[in-house]
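User: What would this chain look like folded?
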Amino acid sequence: MKETKTNVMRILEKEKIPYEAHSYPHGKDAVDGVTVAELTGQNPDYVFKTLVTVSNKKEYFVFVIPVARELDLKKAAKAVGAKSVEMIPVKDINKVTGYIRGGCSPVGMKKSYRTTYHITAADNPKILVSGGKIGTQIDCRPEDLVRITGGQYADICKE
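Assistant: Here's the prediction, encoded as structure tokens.
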């Protein structure tokens, strides 16, 4: 069975960033990130989800956090210098990012948005993020992801 390359994989290859693709069984709907970690045989501390927010000034920000953690909206807003941020409605994910819910990757969005990775990513030799479609994850070094997304690290999760 030939693996279908996603836009995320093409971007990583173009940038000469080593990665490994992982696939997992799925239906037509997204599954939660902890389940994705189980299905791919990965430690949930290394599997990250991509969340998209909008600020009080209608600016979009991307936050990448461990799948078992929850985004702290106050800490997230502070990390990007916004007064406040809130999650974008699910119906807007495709319009804003070009991805669907459950397949949203920090790499290859329609536009470049300010991206913040939870500080624990920096401690990991690799992290897994969505490969750009449901059923696909990619792992690579967090510093490579931060570099190609113009990202930063910050403490953005609830305790």
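The two ends are 43 Å apart (CA to CA). If you want, I can go into more detail on any region.
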